[in-house]
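As a warm-up, study this chain.
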Amino acid sequence: MSTRDELRHGLETLLDAPEARRAREDACRVTAAGLATVGETLLVGGWLLRDDAARAIAVLVQVAGELAGSAVTLLDSERAYGAAVLIRQLVEVEYLAYCFSTDSALAEQWLTSAQEDLRRLFQPAAMRRRSGGIFRDEEYWTHCELGGHPNPKARVLLPGREGAVDARWMWADLAQHLDRLWSFVMDAVTAADFGRALPEDSCSEVTESLGAWRAADILATRMPLAVLENDAD
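Now compare it with the structure written out below.
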């Protein structure tokens, strides 16, 4: 058995641990719902305050809530490939949330820029460079291969394939991205001085759920899908 196969076997054992699996899936569900609620709340607050940065964050968080909630629905029905497509979109939402957390002026710029400027200023590669190494090229490329434009490598997510990456893996991937995304969203809201608009109950539920998952699941550190990076198959 190769080192990669041994790593994969070990990860699958961790993916099946009952307590960790429950905490992992619960974190995804609660965070997805929390993002949807926060997005709706910020939308109202941004409109009342006539604040473009707040409006931009609201749009982004609503997008995150839609993507995360839909990914949960797909994973509940074992649709790993469909979930991978949505998680790949969530990765770019993470990039934007990080940018907004470092400079609220970027949020306003994102909301008000022409499409040509959006493509130039907020390209994924440009945002990765801006992050100073927080986001890795290899991670993004793996997500593009699995859930971007149709790619033969994504066959590992399709049912009936030997060595397929099933929904267990994607739950872990989704949980990790939602954990990081939630942190960036909270920082972006703070940077825009918009924290007073946050729904406290929903935020507390997400914080508690993510904390319980980190305590129960060794895979809360990054990341099972890394085993697929640069895989020749």
